[in-house]
User: Fold these one by one.
Assistant:
Number 1:
Amino acid sequence: MGSRRPRLRTLAVLAAALIGAGVVIVGVANAVVLLGGEGSSDVAGAPHAQVALLLGAKVEPDGVPSAMLADRIAVAAELYRAGKVERVLASGDHGRTDYDEVNAMKRALVARGVPARDVFTDHAGFDTWSSVVRARKVFRVSSALVVTQDFHLARAVWLARRAGITAHGVGADLRGYGGQGTLSQARELLARVKAVGDVVRDAQPRYLGPPIPITGDARASAG
């Protein structure tokens, strides 16, 4: 019994140290992203940019955008109609034939009056870092209004700037999102840690591919 107690105390100290280190890492990463990102702007207050970078979110099994994605689409279309951007780049997950965020976004944008010729589609935007790196390297985007919910906005703008894009954020919180919104806010604490890690490691997207300049014909990005 006597020898077991020191071991237990040692394990307790190590566990406390690991927990403390984790708290510090999460805190520092969140501070870096929040201080280097940007809060939400509305459409009227947004500066002019080359493109609205519309970030993907869940699509239901029947192909209908989730509430969060529908609100992002509405704001991106409004930015285009207001003359704040010249193009929309819809970037999301189309990694499987039975799941397609990207064409769902495109259909909804066109239905809202954005000409198909001005809707570029990025089918390999599997996470935020991939979306912004591909926007810069594949689509040659130099300036963007990043469209997403407020909980995600600081990270998305911070990553876009780290990728070399002059970026500003436009919030898409057009309603409450209930439990999904609460869960997303909680997950964001760890997502910011991953974001800092991706930048530090200079992580590369799963796919890059040949350039499809955003100044060209959107049909080149169809898929």
Number 2:
Amino acid sequence: MPSFFGVLFVSLCWGLGGPLSFSAVQTLSPAAATFGRCVFAFLGLSPFFILDGPRLFRRLSPRGLMLLTLSGFLLGVHFYFFIAGVAYASLATTVMIVAVEPVLILAIGVLGFKEKLTSHGVLGILFCISGVMIISALPNWLSGSSNRGWGDLCAVLAVVTYAIYYAINRGLRSEEARMNLPGGVLRGGFAMASWIYLFASLSSGSLIFITTDGQKGLSGPLDAKVWGALIAMGLIPTLLGHSLSQILSRRVHPIWISLMSPGETLMSLLIGWVFLNQSLRPVDQLGGLLIGAGVIIALLGEIRKKDSSRPK
């Protein structure tokens, strides 16, 4: 049950990422928006960085230092491709980001970490992916529209970089157990996340200078709306959502991590319906029901597995 609520919370936080990114790139380049997102996430966790960051860094093995650095650099690159996909939106962007990630995460869990998949977990993921496909792709397929290009490539690269980032974080679980930081799981997880966002800030900052769109500068003033979008991006989907997903990725079965992306789609729809007065099309409602059913099936499978493992 804690895994279910973790998925729900991360999905809700991530659901705000797309709208906030869209707001930011109306003025900023994707690279600049990514840099702002990472910097504000790091600043939000700076107390944990000051209290526990140096001690954590000293206790890491050389392998752990390498994994932590790679995790941060890859996360910054992933954020850039995600935000660039939002800025240069196309038909396949949303579909690839939310529908392919679960498959890759499960493949990494099975092949890389020898995790076992239950029939409930596989069925739940199939329901979720079907729901995402119906919401994102079906209306465009029926209308015969197609839009390929840079946005599609950004979506593919965002998916790939996220999958590698997940695998690296999964590999850090032995390091986290060995460090035995004070303050429990959350404090240690936030301390590790602060290092990850520091490295993500460095990688995304470098993209401002080496990407074409990073050289374009501002398309308008940095008013309160832009600053608000950057701060909210750094604190809600990043500091809260991604920090918790990092902690969970080192502790729970990959099936739960793979449910976060379809959950993000569902939460985005609900946020738009409740707060932005956006109507829910029949395909949205059908897709949402399938995603919800997939999460419930996976949850029931987890409960059943725990019940069967208890001594009788």
